[in-house]
Design a protein that fits this description.
2 copies of one chain form a homodimer. By secondary structure, chain A is of the alpha/beta class. Chain A has 12 helices and 10 strands. Chain A has helices spanning 17-28, 41-47, 88-98, 116-119, 165-181, 192-212, 217-222, 224-243, 252-262, 269-275, 282-295, 301-317, and strands at 9-13, 32-36, 49-53, 57-61, 66-67, 76-81, 99-108, 127-141, 144-159, 186-189. In chain A, strands 1, 2, 3, 4, 5, 6, 7, 8, 9 and 10 form a 10-stranded mixed β-sheet that branches. In chain A, helix 3 links the parallel strand 6 and strand 7 (99-108). Chain A binds chain B through residues 209, 212-213, 215, 219-220, 223, 225-226, 228-229, 232-233, 301-302, 304-309, 311-313, 315-316, and chain B through 209, 212-213, 215, 219-220, 223, 225-226, 228-229, 232-233, 301-302, 304-309, 311-313, 315-316.
Chain lengths: 318, 318
């Protein structure tokens, strides 16, 4: 025992706003970070990554260890997946190519059961974890990321070789310490499903209403009717979570509501997807929670109405 | 008794799509019809009224007995109010000026309790009736009306000097016969509130969703998610009506749904109001039914979510 541990090699699968932000923060902290890119590979290889953060200041990473193909990446101990949930199944080959033996694959994504479509496509030897990011960040251009506020990550173990509660928590704690070492608030969750339900208390109202009403958080929080609608949607998510056997701390929805009032004006990621004519993450954020709650005997009628409306909009936007 | 009855003098208060259509049909049938106009007075006085009807063909009425002030109108036995419910209280002085003693004031409007704001502003000697129009009609330009399909009117007595069920039904029947004499399908309803609730089964889904989703009936009826949402909203209206003590015939919602599938593609009136940046009829079509159902112990959560969303949109559109 020397007391020193080799720093893990980290791979970023999908270098958008989320992958880019956390990858740059980890690189700044001295981690060996490798970025997989698609459409923005050339821009990032030439000009590097730029972060304009209201919390951490301006950062530039140049040169970037950037790759256009996963097979060229070194074997990574941690893989942080920041791509959209709508493409999880397509990412499996890249993850397998970039993973070191026993790698931890952390999905920094919103929604429920996002790990499941990936689990059956990955070898049993890889760990899958879920990560919930409480952050206001968006991609301002190729390789350019704007970070407006917050940044906390919650990490929970999903599936893989770790057997038993202790082993699962231990690997989640490893992930938590990575973020903490990069100056980011983070904590482990014993149950990733519970963490995902809790995050839905924010995502279900704000992501959907940003598209449905064409409004960012500030106007949504300034209008008496949208405020009541947000509260009612949050209450339905909490009911759904509890029906599914999860804990939601008392006052949790109220605290997210209050947090959003203090946030800078923010366009949720679903609105950016809508504007970019990309498919909306409706399965992960709406359809699966609705199905899970229904199976547990819980109706979430306002969420269902929102989901139906968004499905109509998504199909027209395609 | 001679068997002949003098034809009543009819006044149209608010010559938009509804008032213009029924007024022209009555004039064509030989009734003495007088039209009150505001912004379109000059256009109609110069060029008359035009109707392009898919059912009745092309009609022109020129010259028109057109007025820019109610005080210039002859005393009318029947006043048909086709203006928006959002301006009912403002219309009271014009109605009083144009009304013959004992006149019947028929509100050809959607929504609940639209008679109430007017009742307290009119003398007790005037009868108020409600009329529900099942029709696809819109204003195509100043004095120009396009009639796409349907046309049926349901008439019910609301309040006034008629005492007892028989007297109330008798006056509603008078109104029904006016429309029938003009070649329009019409029937009397014993309870105008019940008729209004039944009409809401159509208005609540289609008016709101046309604004919320920017879609006319054809695309709304072609998408699997909007179809399910429409059915769910209709079911909530039926529950609300029953909770408030009204009858809704079995299969009523299904018949309106099927009727809409057969209709030509149609933009409901609320969408035209939205486009024209006029206030939406949210109080009559949403807020009052929600309050009435709630008072009867019935939640209509999807309708409430729709109402909150529309309120946000309406305020932004002002």
């Amino acid at each position: 025992m020397t007391g020193t541990v080799a720093k893990p090699i980290i791979g970023i699968i999908g270098t958008g706003a989320i992958g880019g932000f956390y990858g740059m923060m980890l690189a700044r902290a001295g981690f060996d970070v490798h970025f997989l890119l698609r459409s923005e590979f050339c821009a990032v290889a030439e000009r590097g990554l730029q972060l304009d953060s209201a919390v951490h200041g301006a950062l530039t990473l140049n040169p970037v260890q950037a790759y256009s193909a996963a097979k060229d990446m070194p074997p990574c101990d941690w893989l942080l997946v920041g791509a959209k949930t709508t493409s999880n199944a397509d990412l499996a080959p890249a993850i397998v190519q970039a993973a070191a033996p026993g790698a931890r694959v952390l999905l920094l994504q919103n929604g429920l059961d996002v790990e499941d479509s990936l689990r059956e496509l990955l070898p049993d030897s890889l760990h899958i974890l879920g990560g919930l990011c409480y952050i206001c960040v968006h991609r301002a251009g190729p390789g350019v990321i704007t970070h407006q506020a917050l940044g906390k990550v919650q990490v929970g173990y999903h599936s893989g070789p770790a057997v038993g509660e202790q082993a699962r928590v231990s690997i989640a704690d490893e992930g938590t310490r990575l973020f903490q070492a990069a100056g980011i608030d983070a904590n482990s969750m014993p149950d990733v499903q519970e963490a995902r339900w809790q995050k839905l208390v924010w995502n279900i109202p704000y992501n959907g209403l940003s598209v449905l009403l064409g409004a960012s958080t500030a106007p949504l929080m300034a209008d008496t009717d949208s405020r009541e609608l947000i509260k009612a949607l949050m209450a339905e998510v909490v009911e759904g979570a509890i029906a599914c056997g999860h804990q939601v701390p008392p006052g949790y929805a109220e605290s997210l509501f209050a947090m959003t009032e203090k946030m800078p004006d923010y366009w949720p990621s679903m609105y950016h997807d809508f504007l970019g004519k990309r498919p909306l993450e409706l399965a992960a954020i709406y359809a699966r929670p609705l199905a899970a709650a229904k199976a547990a005997g819980c109706q979430m009628p306002r969420i269902e109405a929102l989901y139906r409306s968004l499905s109509f909009i998504d199909r027209r936007n395609a």
